[in-house]
Amino acid sequence: MELRHLRYFQAVAEELSYSRAARRLHIAQPALSRAVQEIERELGVNLLDRTRSSVRLTPAGKVLLRETALIFERWDEAMSRVLRTAGGEEGELRLGYIGPPTQPFLGRLLGEYRRRYPLVAIHLEERTPERVWEMVAKSRLSIGLTRPVPMAEALGLRTIKLRDERLGIVVPVAHPLAKRKNIAWRALEREPLIVLARREGVGLHDAVLAGCRAAGFAPKLAHTPSLIGTVLSYVEAGSGVGIVTDSIVAPELPLHFVPLKPTVSVPLVLVWQEDEDAPPVQRFRELVIEWQRAGKLWAKRPSR
Amino acid sequence: MELRHLRYFQAVAEELSYSRAARRLHIAQPALSRAVQEIERELGVNLLDRTRSSVRLTPAGKVLLRETALIFERWDEAMSRVLRTAGGEEGELRLGYIGPPTQPFLGRLLGEYRRRYPLVAIHLEERTPERVWEMVAKSRLSIGLTRPVPMAEALGLRTIKLRDERLGIVVPVAHPLAKRKNIAWRALEREPLIVLARREGVGLHDAVLAGCRAAGFAPKLAHTPSLIGTVLSYVEAGSGVGIVTDSIVAPELPLHFVPLKPTVSVPLVLVWQEDEDAPPVQRFRELVIEWQRAGKLWAKRPSR
DNA sequence: AACGGAAATAGAGTTTCGGTATCAGGCTTA
DNA sequence: TAAGCCTGATACCGAAACTCTATTTCCGTT
User: Fold this and answer.
1) CA–C1' A58–D15 (A)
2) In angstroms, rounded to a whole number, what is the distance separating the alpha carbons of residues B95 and B106?
3) B153 CA to chain A: closest CA distance, Å?
4) Which of B1, B63, B139, B281 to mutate to test the interface with A (most CBs of A within 10 A)?
5) From CA A37, how far away is CA A35, in angstroms rounded?
6) Cα→Cα distances A45→A39, A299, B84, B128, B155, Å
7) B37: helix, coil or strand?
8) Which of A83, B4, B84, B154 has minimal CB crowding within 10 Å?
9) What's the whole-number mean pLDDT along residues B142-158?
């Protein structure tokens, strides 16, 4: 039996007349007779009581009419789901990200995304940079905002760089270095440094070490906490000079950011699986790129 | 698009291979290629990523696979509902009845019915005899246990008599008439009588009046309460002689029933609409007739 | 480089689907 | 009461569709 049979039966059952139903369906009446007979034969059940002059539903026919409506409802729902999914209006987006560098724009970005594609279910996972791209590689996440991925191609991953974040120091406003336009790496040789723990981000940590090595000294790491916030707290407490990227904003704290020279950058990238074609993910990529081009990814950050 | 398309798509999506799916469906592979292409063309959506060597679901395809399962679930549910309805295993039975004469067997009868057809929803309505058959005539009830219906055929109703209930008197055990095997109508000429109100049952009330008239006297009606129980209470209180049918059992009360002679009967009938063909109703009729033949309709009543 | 496997395409045969013509029976109308 | 009309069922035919076999094309493997 096919849907056609149900469509025909439904029309007859609603019109309670073969000829009227045939007119409604724009087909000839004998086709209806046959179709209904086929259902009845296949089920072995009488659905319609037909006298020459009237058509009435049997109890089983009444039940089938109700059920038919439910089936078509499901059918329509299925089709529109598929269309919405193909159009990227429905589905899910599992986004992994690193917190501090994305904090200035992530909220607004997701707000815009949700506004455009309200039916997409958004799952967020804040992880360390390495964990984020590992999870993307394992398809545990559909897309990630993180630090560059070594051997991305070998893992079947694609990345685009959203921004280079420049390294610099954070010091209390009263600190002697706070007034400088920029600062040489050498100046940090004697300073006790506060840097994020390596396990929280190999890229950032190693970039700091590389910067120092390039300047010809080994850094004196006073503390390597697990949270950017803790770095800032140490700095505020006067425990040393913090090294962070310029994406870290803390306007409410009495701290100053001074870029290091020569410039050392830590990129922020968008990463996804090469064959990831789920429309919600594609739409998210498009939105991020659109915002990057429009310079909106850091718009609200006060320029320093 | 037809169910066939979904069946084929489902097989391909589950097997992730056209040739394996074709083997599973016992058809040739090109038919599958075509069917899936037809879905894709009709929806304008890619459902499968096919390379020469592998088939993978697109996001929309995944959604359709899930939805397809739901549709088939609904379909199966619909078909088995229809079959159960046709077989009388599902549906509803709206039964109207008069209380006192049916009380000795109705509970057991419905218990057996529910045991046999557990999916049938049973609705009960206790009403006066006239109200019961009126409601059957208006299709507010699917079947009724009541007193005979005047002009049943004209109303499109069919009835079968389940039993003739013999009229008799109820008196306190100590009453002078209590020891008699039977009693003549004439003996009631001077007695204050307690009879159920006419509005609660025209048939019974008029049968009493007719019995008296046939014996050549007009009855002295002391009370005409609305409930059989109240009749018995009046009798117990010594207010007069009650006239009831022999179906009224009150073994816990100190009352005796003595049949009247000549015998006057009030029938109990089963009534339904002529064209009522809902299987649950047909099954109920069959059960009642079966019980009547087996003499089980009053089995538990102590014979007096 | 050749082979094997998988899906797409082409062409032919068969099924089935819908159309027209017709039949049979009931209701209305003259 | 008879004729006409309407309804659903049946018979038959032509066209569309579905499926099959045969073949091609491409990828991956040996």
Assistant:
1) 35
2) 11
3) 21
4) B63
5) 5
6) 8, 69, 10, 37, 29
7) helix
8) B154
9) 89
Q: Is the minimum distance from the CB of B23 to strand C below 7 Å?
A: no
Contacts of A8 in chain B (CB under 8 A): none
Using the structure block, give the residue that is written with the tokens 């291979």. B17
HSE-up of residue B187 (Cα within 13 Å, Cβ side): 16
Residues on chain A bordering chain B, Cβ-to-Cβ distance under 8 angstroms:
1-4, 43-47, 49, 58-60, 63-64, 67-68, 70-71, 74-75, 77-79, 81-83, 85-86, 90-91, 277-280
d(CA B277, CA B265): 31
Structure-block tokens of residue B6: 């979904």
Strand blocks (E) in B173-286: 183-184, 192-194, 220-223, 241-245, 255-261, 265-273
Q: How far is B74 from chain A (nearest CA, A)?
A: 6
- Number of Cβ within 10 Å of residue A95's Cβ equals 24
Local structure of B54: helix, strand or coil: coil
Share of chain A above pLDDT 90, in %: 52
Q: In A32-61, which positions are buried (b, 16+ CB within 10 angstroms) versus exposed (e)?
A: beebbebbbeebebebbeeeeeebebbbbb
- Dihedral, A199, A201, A203, A209 alpha carbons, nearest 10: -60
Q: Using 50, 70 and 90 to split pLDDT, how confident is the model at A250?
A: low
Q: Work out the angle between the directed axes of helices A29-43 and B59-86 (0-180°, nearest 10).
A: 80
Q: How far is CA B204 from the centre of its chain?
A: 24
| Whether B182 contacts B259, CB under 8 Å | yes
| Nearest partner of A104 among A244, A300, A257, A237, judged by Cα | A300
How far, CA to CA in Å, does B219 sit from each of A131, B52, B58, B186, B262? 100, 101, 89, 10, 16
CA B3 from chain centre, in angstroms, equals 38
pLDDT tops 90 at residue A251: no
Residues of B with CB under 8 A from a CB of A: 1-4, 43-47, 49, 58-60, 63-64, 67-68, 70-71, 74-75, 77-79, 81-83, 85-86, 90-91, 277-280
CA distances from B283 to B40, B103, B162, B290 (A): 49, 21, 16, 10
Round to whole Å and give the CA distance between B85 and B90: 5
- What are the pLDDT digits (tens) for A204-227? 999 999 999 999 999 999 999 988
- What amino acid is encoded at B28 in this protein? A
Report the pLDDT value the prediction gives residue A127, as an integer from 0 to 100. 92
Query: How far apart (Å, rounded) are the C-alpha atoms in residues B80 and B67?
Result: 20
Instruction: Say which of A4, A46, A71 has its CB closest to residue B74.
Output: A71
Compute how many other C-beta atoms are within 10 angstroms of the C-beta atom of residue B154: 8
Protein-nucleic contacts, chain A 44-83 to strand D, CB < 7 Å: 50, 52-53, 55
Residue among A61, A79, A88 at smallest CA distance from A6: A61
Please write the tens of the pLDDT for every residue from B257-303.
999 989 999 999 999 998 787 889 999 999 999 999 998 887 554 44
In this predicted structure, the answer to whether residue A300 has a pLDDT above a threshold of 70 is no
Determine the distance in angstroms separating the CA of B57 from the nearest CA of chain A, rounded to an integer.
10
The amino acid that residue B132 corresponds to is V
Q: Where do runs of H (alpha helix) occur along chain A?
A: 3-15, 18-25, 29-43, 59-86, 99-116, 129-137, 202-214, 228-236, 279-293
